[in-house]
Amino acid sequence: MSLNNLILITGRTINQGVALEGGKTTRENVRAAGICAFDKNDFIKLNCLAGTPVKVITDFGEVLVYSTISEEGPHPGIIFIPMGPWANQVVNPDSQSSGTPTFKGIKARVEVVKNAKVLDAVQLISKLKESN
Amino acid sequence: MAEIKLKLKKQPKFPLEADVITPDILAGKPAAEIKKLLLYYGNESVKLGDFFDVMGKSTNPRDTKIIIDGDLSNVKRIGEKMTDGEIIINGDVGMHVGNQMEGGKITVNGNAGDWAGAMLKGGELEITGDAGNYIGAAYRGFWIGMENGTIKVGGKIGRESMLWARSSKGAAQFPILMCGAAGSFLGMHNHGGTIMVEGDVDRCAGADQVWGQIIIKGKVSKLLPSFKKIGETNEIELPNGQKVSGKFIEYSGDHSVNKETKGRLYLAA
Amino acid sequence: MVDKNVKTYYDVICPFCGTLCDDLEIDVDQKEQKVVEVRNGCQIGTRKFYSSNPSEHRYTTPLIRENGSFKETSWDEAIDKAADILVKAKRPLLYGFASTECDAQAKGVELAEILGGILDNTASVCHGPTLLAEQDVGVPTSTLGEYKNRADLVIFWGSNPVHAHPRHLGRYSDFVRGYFRQDGRNDRFIVVVDPRNTNTAQIADLYIRVNPNEDYELFNAIRATLRGVEIDEKEVAGVPKDDIVKLVNIMKDSHYGVIFFGMGLTQTISHHRNIDAAVCLTRELNNYTKFLITPMRGHYNITGANAVFTWNTGYAYSMDFSRGYARYNPGEFSSVDVLMRDEIDASLIVASDPASNFPAGAVKNMFKHPLISIEPHHTPTSVNADIILPAAFAGIETEGTAYRMDHVPLRLRKVKDPPGNVLSDKKILERLIEKVKEKKGE
Fold first, then answer.
1. Which residues of B53-77 are buried (b: 16+ CB within 10 A; e: fewer)?
2. Are B195 and B162 in contact (CB under 8 A)?
C-alpha cells in the first residue's frame, strides 16, 4: 500500500531530544527519531499496523522508518519525521543561497514495506561513509 | 578593440577567485605580467598563469576586450568593479560575475552562478543561459542594491533577484533586469527597479516593493494578496522613457508596505 | 538521612536549549564525581546532566583512527596529528560551537583566522535566516523577563515549545504569574500558527492552521489588512479571510504582544523572507500597541556563538577567512552549501553533531576528507572521525558564559569534574592554536 502527494515536515520532539542526549547510537534513538507520524485518517489508507516499517521517498532520497500515528493531528496530507539522520536522508539539501537547507515542507510519498529492517543511526550514517 | 585571450587550462578543485580579471587591471600589461597576477585558491594565492593560458595585450581599459574560454563554473568574481571595456566568457561562469560593475559590458555565453551583477552601478551584463539566485541583488546587510545599468538573462533566474534595487529620477539612474523566467521573491524590497520577464514567474513576485515596475509576459502561479488589480493597459512607459506594448492587467503593490503605493506589477492578459 | 558524600548545587544553568533555565538543582556524589539527582530540569536537560556521568558513551582519552579502528593515544600526539591535518588543508571547515561556552567560541575564531578556513556555527542550519532578516529589517525585541511580566498576547509561529523548549511556557510565556500578569495563564491569550495541531497548539486559545510553505503569504495578508487594505482573496495560505481580520484585531487590541518563532519559518522554503515579514509586521503593530519578536534559539549557547563571532569579526556565522580577513555570505560560505559543492578538504567539528543534523549529501562529502571531532561522547559524527579529542561538558564540568535566546548572558557553573583524561573545549582549541602556529613557523 502507498500514499502519494504528501508533504514531509521534520522537527523536534521531546523524545528525540531525550534520546539525543542519552547517546545517539542507542536503540532508544531509533524509536525516537527513526519514525514517521501519520495523520490518523491518512494512516488508515495505508492498511497496516502502527509500527510497520514504511519507505519515505522524496526527490532527494529514500529512507526506511517505523510508522506511527500522530498525536499532533489532524494534519491530513502531512507526515512528520523527527529531525535526525533518518529525516536527513530525504530532506532538500538546497538552501536556495540562504545557507539553510529546506528541512520542512518537502513533497513526499510513502510505501509500506513489511519485513524490512530500520537501521540505527550509526548504521545509517556509516553507509554514507562507505559509499565514498 | 584589442583582444586579450584567456583559456582555462585546468579545472579548479576549490573555488578560484579571479577579481583581477577586468579590463581595468589587465589593460596596459604584457601577457607575461598578466600571468603573474594573483588569483585566490582556497587559502593560498596562485598565479593567473597557473590556471590560464594568456595571449594578447591592450593599452587602455576602454579599448580592451577580454575573451575567456573554458568551463569557469568554479571561477568567481570575474569583472568585479570594472569601469569600461568588454569581457566575453565562452562557457559557464561562477558566482559574483560583474558584481559592482560601473561601466563596460560582460557577455556570458553560458550559465552564470549566484549574485551575477550584484550591486551593479552601470554597464551591461548579458547572460545567454540561466543564472542563479540574487541576480542584480544587494549583498548581505546592504539596503541599496543595483542602482543603474542593465542585466539581460536569456534563461531562468533564481530567487530574490534585484533585491533592494534603487533608481533615481534626479540622477537619471534606472536599473533594469530582463530575463526569460524567474524564481520566487522577484524584485524583493524593490525601490524603483524595472524588471521584465518574457516567461513565467514563481510565487511572491514584488514582495515588499515600495516603487518600481515588474512586467510579466508569462504566467504567475499566484500573486501576493497585497497586490490589488487597478485596471488594464496596452502600453507601459518605463522610467527611462522606453515603452512596452501589449495587453496587460495592472496591479498596484506591495500594499503590505504602504497603503498607497506607486509600485506596479503588470501581468500579460 | 542526608548523605554527607552528596553536595547540592543551586541555581545551576541548564546547558541544553536556548531557554537557558537558571534554577536547576544538581546533587553530585563528591567521591564518584557523578550526578545523582537533577531537580527542576525538563526531561532533556535532566538527561544531559546524567549523560555526563562516566559511561561507555563518554570519551575519556584522545583517539586516533588507525586501520579502521580507534587507538588510544596521548594528548600531545593527537594534537600534533590534528594540527598537521589542519595546516595542510587548503579549505578547512571549522563548524559547531553552539554547545560550548564563550571563551571556547572565541578560540574557534582565532583558529579559523590563522588557518584561513571557513568558520561556521549551527545557526547555519537553524536560525541563520533570522540573522539574515535582522540584517535587512532589524528586530524589535526584548527579554524573557519582560515578556513574563507584561505580555498578554503570545504568538508561537512555526514553533513547538512543548517539544523543543519544554520549560519556556512554564517559566516565561504561558503558565507563570508575571508582575502585570498576576493571574498567570488566565491573563494571557495564546495563539499558535502551525501546519500541524501540535501539542503546543492543543493548549492554545487560538490555533491557526497554515498551509506548509505559505507562511509568507499569510504574513503578507495580515500586514495588508493591518494597513487598512482589503484583500480580495477569500482565503490565504489555507486561512479564511475572516480569521485573518480577527487575528489582526486581536493583535491591535492587545496591550503587549510578542511573537516567538522557530524552524517553521526558518526551514521552510521562504527561509529568511518569512522572518523579514514577521519583523515588519511586528514593527507596524507598534503603531497601535507594544509588540515585539524573539527567535526561539535551539542550542543553549548558539546566541553566544553569534555574539562572540560578531564582536570578533563583525559577522555572526558562515564566514570565510581564506583571503586573510573575514568575509560573510550564507549560501556561499555556509557549511551545508560548501559541503554539497565538495569544496572542503578537512573539517574540525566542535561541540556539535553535523552527521546527524546535516542532509545526507553534505555528510557524505564531509566524510570524504579528514575529520577531527572535539566531543564529550559518542555521536554519529565522532564515531566516523579520524581524530577524537575528548572534551568536558561546558556548564557541567567547566565554567563559562552562555547567552540565552534573548541575549541575556548567564554564567555556567562547574558542578563536577570530568572523567578520565579530558580537557575543556577552550583548552583543546588553545593547544591546537599553539601547535598550528608552531607548524606554520609563526
1. ebebbbeebbebbbbbbbebbbbbb
2. yes
Residues of B in contact with C221 (CB under 8 A): 225-226, 256
Is the pLDDT score of A26 beyond 80?
A: no
For B43, the closest of C90, C135, C277 (CB atoms) is C90
d(CA C43, CA C101): 22
| Structural Rg of chain A based on CA atoms | 14
CATH of domain C128-295: 3.40.228.10
Q: Which amino acid is at B89?
A: I
Q: Mutate which of C85, C220, C231 to disrupt the B interface (most B C-beta within 10 Å)? A: C220
CATH value of C63-125+300-394+421-439 in 3.40.250.10, 3.30.230.10, 3.40.50.740, 3.30.420.140 = 3.40.50.740
Which residues from C are below 8 Å from B41, CB to CB?
Answer: 90
Q: Which of residues 90-119 of A touch B (CB under 8 A)?
A: 96-97
- Provide ipTM, 2 decimals: 0.95
Percent of chain C predicted with pLDDT > 70: 99
Residue of A71, A100, A126, A130 best to disrupt the C interface, most CBs of C under 10 A: A100
pLDDT digits (tens, 9 = 90+) for C220-235: 999 999 999 999 999 9
Q: Measuring CA to CA, which residue among C311, C271, C323, C286 is closest to residue C127?
A: C271
Q: What is the mean pLDDT of residues B234-252?
A: 93
pLDDT in the model for residue C2: 64
Q: Domain boundary residue among B75, B110, B145?
A: B110
Question: Is the CB of residue B143 less than 8 Å away from at least one CB of chain C?
Answer: yes
Q: What is the DSSP string of C259-325?
A: EEE-HHHHSSTTTHHHHHHHHHHHHHHTTTSEEEEEE---BTTHHHHHHHHHHHHS-SSSEE-TTSS
CATH code of the region A2-130: 2.40.40.20
Whole-number Å distance between alpha carbons of C51 and C71: 23
Residues 211-240, chain B, touching C (beta carbon < 8 A): 222, 224-226, 228-229
Full-model pTM: 0.96
> What is the least distance, in Å, from the CA of C371 to any CA of chain B?
18
Residues of chain C neighbouring B257 (CB-CB closer than 8 A): 223, 280
Query: Closest Cα of chain B to C68: distance in Å?
Result: 27
Q: Helix C102-115 vs helix C425-439: angle between axes, to the nearest 10 degrees? A: 20
**What mean pLDDT is predicted for residues C236-253?**
98
Q: Please give the pLDDT value at position B1.
A: 87
Closest CA to C110 of C278, C253, C313, C409: C313
Contacts (Cβ under 8 Å, ≥6 apart) of C216? B204, B207, C270, C273, C274, C277
Which tens digit of pLDDT belongs to each residue from C81-101? 999 999 999 999 999 999 999
Q: How many CB atoms sit inside 10 A of residue A76's CB?
A: 11
A116 falls in which pLDDT band (50, 70, 90)? confident
What is the C-alpha to C-alpha distance for residues B98 and B126, in angstroms, rounded to an integer?
10
Neighbours of chain A (3+ CB pairs under 8 A): B, C
**Residue B224 and residue B126 in one domain:** yes
Residues with Cβ within 8 Å of residue B156, at least 6 apart in sequence = B130, B131, B179, B180, B181, B182, B183, B199
Calculate the average pLDDT of chain B. Answer: 96
